[in-house]
């Protein structure tokens, strides 16, 4: 790679479909410095209309679902770069990801794009055919979502996960949580609880949990409703 690497991030996610966005949100909310790369070509865009994504009982346009997912990344302070990752090389510590005009160092990588996995070619990643009579390779992972390359995880369709968007989002979150537990062993849960919940049980607030007051909860509810009204009225 010829580009001068930028600062190292904790986690780089390749792909901003449901799996990649979910992974990015969970990693960023755990205070890991996270960046998600997108080439703007999510497989979800092949769908005419999404009718089985939990939380949208009347369905939602794929474009709107992707836009909301990426807005969630920004809300979680996760970086989003509209750049294609062309190559990943393993370094003594972590990885170096190259786009057309720059390189980024990352301690860990989550691969979550299925349409093109050529950026993994320089890594010794074990793959297998998706099924008999298929020319599509899927990446082999263990129960935590880690590939045969230490520190490289994969989630979603490229691992053979069912192609439904909701299933892929869940897989991205699952893999991210496993990575978080590896980096932050004391991490308990990404959960918002009412102030005093753990004191009631004479416990310290676990790592990853946020406690808020009733007033703050009501404000967040109001803000959430307003954000959704603005989004769909503008759309």
What would you note in describing this structure?
The chain is an alpha/beta fold. The protein has two domains: about 5-185, 3-Layer(bba) Sandwich (FAD/NAD(P)-binding domain); about 190-235. It has helices spanning about 20-30, 60-75, 165-185, 195-200, 215-235, and strands spanning about 5-15, 35, 80, 85-90, 95-100, 105-110, 125-130, 135-140, 150-155, 185-195, 205-210. α1 (about 20-30) runs parallel beside α3. The protein starts with a strand and ends with a helix.
Helix-strand layout with pairing:
Layout: E1 5-14, H1 18-29, E2 34-37, H2 62-75, E3 79-81, E4 87-90, E5 95-98, E6 103-111, E7 127-129, E8 137-139, E9 152-154, H3 165-183, E10 187-194, H4 197-200, E11 207-212, H5 214-234
Parallel strand pairs: 1-2, 1-6, 2-3, 6-9, 10-11
Antiparallel strand pairs: 4-5, 5-6, 7-8
User: What's the gyration radius in Å?
Assistant: 19 Å
Please tell me the CATH architecture of the largest domain by its name. 3-Layer(bba) Sandwich
The DSSP helix count reads: 5
* CATH hierarchy, class of the largest domain: Alpha Beta
Per CATH, the superfamily of the largest domain is FAD/NAD(P)-binding domain
CATH topology of the largest domain: FAD/NAD(P)-binding domain
Which band does the percent of strand residues land in?
A: 15-25%
Residue-averaged pLDDT, rounded? Answer: 92
């Amino acid at each position: 790679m010829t580009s001068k690497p930028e600062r190292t991030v904790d986690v780089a996610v390749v792909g901003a479909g449901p799996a990649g966005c979910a992974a990015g949100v969970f990693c960023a909310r755990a205070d890991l410095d996270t960046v998600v790369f997108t080439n703007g070509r999510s497989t979800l865009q092949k769908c005419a209309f999404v009718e089985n994504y939990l939380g949208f009982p009347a369905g939602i346009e794929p474009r709107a679902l992707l836009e909301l997912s990426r807005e969630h990344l920004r809300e979680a302070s996760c970086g989003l770069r509209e750049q294609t990752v062309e190559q990943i090389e393993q370094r003594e510590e972590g990885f170096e990801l190259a786009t057309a005009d720059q390189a980024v160092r990352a301690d860990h990588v989550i691969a979550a794009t299925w349409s093109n996995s050529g950026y993994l070619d320089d890594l010794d990643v074990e793959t297998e055919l998706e099924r008999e009579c298929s020319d599509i390779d899927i990446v082999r992972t263990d129960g935590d979502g880690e590939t045969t390359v230490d520190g490289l995880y994969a989630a979603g369709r490229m691992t053979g996960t069912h192609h439904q968007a909701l299933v892929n989002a869940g897989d991205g979150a699952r893999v991210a949580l496993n990575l978080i537990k590896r980096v932050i062993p004391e991490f308990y849960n990404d959960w918002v609880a009412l102030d005093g919940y753990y004191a009631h049980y004479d416990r310290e607030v676990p790592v990853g949990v946020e406690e808020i007051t009733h007033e703050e909860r009501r404000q967040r509810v109001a803000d959430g409703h307003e954000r959704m009204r603005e989004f769909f009225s503008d759309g």
